[in-house]
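Lab channel / #folding
Pinned by the channel admin:
"Please post every new chain as: sequence first, then the structure tokens as a reply. Keep commentary short and put observations after the output so the thread stays searchable."

First post following the new format, from NK:
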Amino acid sequence: MQVYLVGGAVRDYVLAREVTEHDYVVVGATPEQMLELGFSQVGADFPVFLHPKTHDEYALARTERKSGNGYLGFNVHADAAVTLEEDLARRDLTINAMAIQVNGLFDSGFKQGKFDARDIIDPYGGLADINQKKITPCVRCFCRRSGTRIAPCPFCQSLCPARIYSR
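Reply from TO:
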């Protein structure tokens, strides 16, 4: 089982912004293992768990496939064989598809920003995009397929690129 801090928390650490949410991806675990360790399951459509003490969200690594219209129109596949790179590929932007491995489910060292840029796992070029002040849809984000960049992503139904760019 490997645990990674992911998404906006990593992006905001890189940009020296205040981090308000710490989201984690757990690779190589099952829902049963998470429950045995005292986590509470909150995700109905895919396995998301709350940490027993911090209440941070820990999601099992997953892939998603568009199957219909709107926010709910997708199929989720979560199991212990899904890799970190596969999970990160489903994210909207490359700058949100970065991760930092932590020392297990009960490590909170990264909450105090204790990491080095060399620790960042960045398979889709998010660090380069931050340095170039560029917003790029991630590999599997459906807005890339439609060719639009600042319109709502048909997959995630958000204006995330516009919101981030405005900062």
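NK: Strands lie at 2-6, 23-27, 40-41, 48-50, 57-60, 62-66, 74-78, 99-102, 120-121.
TO: also worth noting, The first strand starts at residue 2 and ends at 6.
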